[in-house]
Amino acid sequence: MVTPARRAPLTKDLVLQALQDVKDPEIPVVSIVDLGIVQGVVLAGGRVTVSITPTFTGCPAIEHMRREIVERLIELGADAVEVPIVLDPPWSTDRITPAARQAMEQIGIAPPHSGFTADESLSLTIAVESVPCPWCGHRNTSLESAFGPTICRSIHYCHTCRQSFEQFKALGPLHHA
Amino acid sequence: MGIDARVKQPLRELLYALGDDAFLLGHRNAEWTGLGPILEEDIAFSSMAQDEMGHAVVWYGLMADLGHPSPDAIAYGRQAADWRNARMFEQPRGDYAYSLMRQYLADLSHAVRYDALMQSSLGALATAATKLRQEEKYHLIHGRTLIERLARGTSESRQRLQDACDALFGFALGIWEPTDGEDVLVSSGVTVSSEELQSVWLGVAAGFLAHCGLKPPADVKDGVWRATTEAQWGGRRGEHGADLQTILDAMTLLHRSHPGAVW
Lengths: 177, 263
Fold this sequence. Notes:
Strand content of chain B: under 5%
Oligomer: heterodimer
Number of strands of chain B: 2
Radius of gyration of chain B: 18 Å
Structural class of chain B: mainly alpha
Shape of chain B: globular
């Protein structure tokens, strides 16, 4: 393997810019930076530490993303790259940037509900807000399944344009009644 | 993790219990993949199985500081008597109603326990519980929706759920069998007693099932629910039935055939 010559000293900004090239393998239009998976970047000489936080703990893509981060930063000129996985603070869908929300919508994935309503899961009533269809924009939609092709997505159906679509599931702090 | 020596062994017992419960539940529900009654439920159980496996890895991962650096070694390297799962989780998957009821009773126990662990004096436990608790929300929405719909469905769907409830409830009470040394964990603020958590869980579970028109084996008096069926304990002490050996034989076959193999 040829070690690339470092073009310029590594900075946090350069690292974050390079990490924009590392996409979520399940949603290839959004980067791990825009999804809020990158928790922090620390530079010590040529050694870079990028701490990441998983969206859902069972996410099988985390190791793949970790490998891609290492590859991308070695390519950028880092001497060594470490990618610890941290759970504190826990990832929440609030961390997804507006740009990522738009990119998802364009490929038919409705972005998650923003903000969190009271968690009523221990009580007897459950309220589920209707989701606007990413294809036609109407709210005449229903939840078909709380689970989808990946653990982070649910399946919905639009009665107006008659297409199914997925939604990124909201995760965040729970407010107990 | 910075743990007091006194707390180490009791903590290990608790982490084994939490991890083993999740791991086996995930394994059993993965048995529905390709065989679900309808596609959406096939996906639901497969997805929830994946979540449970992820949760198991989090609990096993916390053992790195307790002399168990590898979740793989924990999952594949132990004998049946070393496992600390509640016996509910080693039972075969039964029919769909059985698995649905089991997942609901388990998820509710996770919500109750993780709510308590979020206040743990051990930061690493509080962090893990906070993250995992957020994911339980979707499991509970699923379980509550399907159980209510099917309990109020046909006489067959209601009967199957009632049979599942009757078969499972004693085993579900086994989730609250205290792990060895729990009193040390309680006095150090690491966790709340299983007895206390059981009464929260029982109130919600029995209340919900009764609301759906089912008859949980429990009575309510002055707003307090008490179980009327015997709790099936033993799992937290490593006392398991033949079903656990069957699962372990299947799960560890590859690991044992090719020790040290790398994918």
